[in-house]
Amino acid sequence: MTALSVSTSSAASLRADALVIGVAKGPKGIVLAPGAEAVSEAFEGKLAEILSTLGATGAEGEAVKVPSPAGLKAALVLAVGLGDAAEGSYELEALRRAAGVAARALAGSKKAALALPAESAEETEAVALGGLLGAYAFGTYKSGGGKEPVGELILLSTRKGSKDAKAAVERALVVGEEMNRARDLVNTAPNDLNPKGFAAIAQAAGKEHGLKVEVLDEKALLKGGFGGLLGVGNGSTNPPRLVKVAYTHPKAKASLAFVGKGITYDSGGISLKPAGHNETMKCDMAGAAAVFAAVVSAKRLGLAVNITGWLALAENMPSGSATRPGDVLRMYGGKTVEVLNTDAEGRLVLADAIVRAGEEKPDVIVDVATLTGAMMLALGSRTFGVMANNDELRSTLHTASGEVGEQSWPMPLPPELRKGMTESTIADLANMGERMGGGLVAGLFLKEFVAEGIDWAHLDIAGPAFHEGAPFGYTPKGGTATAVRTLVRFAEQKAAGGKA
Ligand code: BES
Ligand code: MN
Ligand code: ZN
């Protein structure tokens, strides 16, 4: 991974392949952002003019390169757009994205210095995290390892020594590394990542970071009566797993359970997806990857909370042993479910995991899942839906996501949609209800499995989990690690004694 360090050197004297500055849209043309002062001096005050001539406008996403004048030790100046210049301060997300754009534009070079605004600890963290996330590259399958990401990012800051700036960079490093690990898991081809392999990775990483990891294999699942996980995993030669990752803190202020959907490949099963709908379905374990990354981050940051992560891992395949539409499954805890569509598999593995999570009586359960195409239709591909059995919790999570640069929107769980899942079935529930509001129906299904008295929220990340368009900001093509930062922020708030 790209190395990140902080330096108090002046931008003029630092040897690097490139020096990155920020430019914004001002009322009268482009404005150089704080951090660019020394660079501007080296250009004898003509930098803004030169950049304008080269077409720079300060718009978000823009990257304009200029050869350095004699006064700078770096070969190149790269100006990245910050969007509208607010009075002296920049949105943290604009800083993250600009740093990400710079890291992407400088892929292949060895050393880049970031002279972007980093006046507060928050700004420093934003620049550091955006840079690390933008530098991400997945070269596992490319001959020769693919395009090298930028080798080293040096954050220029006047605040290097201060305690809060140090902590800010440390947080960016932890969260950036864990998000990039989650992206790797999502991007790995599904023939190389099955439930057993995912569980082994969780065990190894857990060991590395001192987390307790327990794996239930197919025998243990059978013994325990985990009918949802087994029913979904039945069609595959790769059997399911339930992974429990426990982080505890001696001064924990709350106990949280994070539950992740971990379908390592979703073909739809016997209700097979048509061509065009399964090419990206290796991403169907993004919820489990996000949960795992969040728990490891919490441990590495030493947050004063207890968190149990539950990874519900299975591969959804059609075969002679696959669950049929019409089969009835007995879920963990005893409820029965008639499977009307084997492609509605996420809710089946999650139901088992949610019941199991509830047995440990956490204060809150948050599940994360690439659950429905309907949520994508509703919110597009960059925003996840937040549903909950508690309005305050739903709004806390929505607000937390906005603070860390993840787009989400609160969605309802209209009680009348529950009926479609309970009528005319031979079992307690069917795994499908009305087609309209499909994302909410799925949420209502999960709600049935939450124990009395436990606050629960559901993040449907089907849209933003996997980015298919052109890279933007710090978001590459493929796995995004969405929801990791929201979960970490939520845990931080709990550690600080915040209410649900
Ligand atoms: N994994 C899919 C949902 C999905 C779709 C995630 C697109 C990411 C991108 C899920 O298992 C699924 O197939 N859901 C069905 C449910 C339906 C059969 C009730 C869907 O959304 O069509
Ligand atoms: Mn499916
Ligand atoms: Zn799925």
Task: Write out key terms for the chains shown.
20 strands; 500 residues; 34% helix; 2 domains; alpha/beta; binds manganese (II) ion; 15 helices; binds zinc ion; binds ligand BES; Aminopeptidase; Leucine Aminopeptidase, subunit E, domain 1; 8-stranded mixed β-sheet; 7-stranded mixed β-sheet
Give a structural overview.
The chain is an alpha/beta fold. It has two domains: 3-157, Leucine Aminopeptidase, subunit E, domain 1 (3-Layer(aba) Sandwich), CATH 3.40.220; 180-495, Aminopeptidase (3-Layer(aba) Sandwich). Helix content is 34%, strand content 22%. It contains 15 helices and 20 strands. The strands form four sheets. The protein has an eight-stranded mixed beta sheet with strand order 8-9-11-10-14-18-15-16, with helices on both faces. Strands 1, 2, 3, 4, 5, 6 and 7 form a seven-stranded mixed beta sheet that branches. A three-stranded mixed beta sheet has the order 12-13-17. A hairpin with an 8-residue loop joins strand 4 and strand 5. The longest helix has 25 residues, at 163-187. It is elongated, with a radius of gyration of 24 Å. The two termini are 35 Å apart. The structure holds ligand BES, manganese (II) ion and zinc ion (ZN). Ligand BES binds at residues 266, 284, 341, 343-346, 370-374, 376, 432, 438, 462.
